[in-house]
Amino acid sequence: MDREKTCCFTGHRPDKLPWGGDESDPRCRRLKVRIAQAVEDAYVSGVRRFITGMARGVDLYCAEAVLALREGEPDIVLECARPCETQADSWPAVEQERYRSILERCNFETLVQHSYDRFCMMRRNRYMVDRSGSLIAVYNGVPKGGTFQTLAYAMKKGLTIHTIDLEDFL
Length: 170
What we know:
Elements: E1 6-11, H1 26-44, E2 49-52, H2 58-70, E3 77-82, H3 93-105, E4 108-111, H4 120-130, E5 134-139, H5 146-156, E6 160-165
Helix pairs in contact: 1-2, 2-3, 4-5
C-alpha cells in the first residue's frame, strides 16, 4: 500500500456537531458538500485509497462521500477500520443499518482489535494515520478529544492535512 496515495479521515460525532444528528439541517448538507469536494480533490491529486474509522457523524459522512465518488471512479478503494467488533452495538437501529451498509460496500474491512477497551479508538486512529499520506479533518478547534488527538498525531507524522473548520458551519 502506497501511503502517498492513501487518505484517512477524522471528525466529530453528532454530539459535537452544531446540528447534532439532524442531517436535514442545511449546515449539515453544506458540510457534506465540502467533504465530497475534499474527497474529489484528494482523488484528483492522486489518492486512490481512503480509510474511514466508521464512527457516527463525520466518519460515516466521509465513507458515503467516497462510495459516491467511487461510482464514477472505480479505481477508488475504501477501507473501513473498525476499532472493535462491538463498535456499533449501542447505536440507534437506523445508524447500525447505515454502518452495515457501508461495510457491505467497502473494499476492505480492518478490525483493529476484537474487544473494546479504552484505547481501541486511539489504536484505530493511529492505524489509519500510520498508513496514510494525507488526512481530511472536520474539526471544531477544541484542543481535546479524539479528533484533536488524531490531528496532532497526523501532524507529528508529517501528513498533508486538509482541515474543514466546523466554525464555518455555525
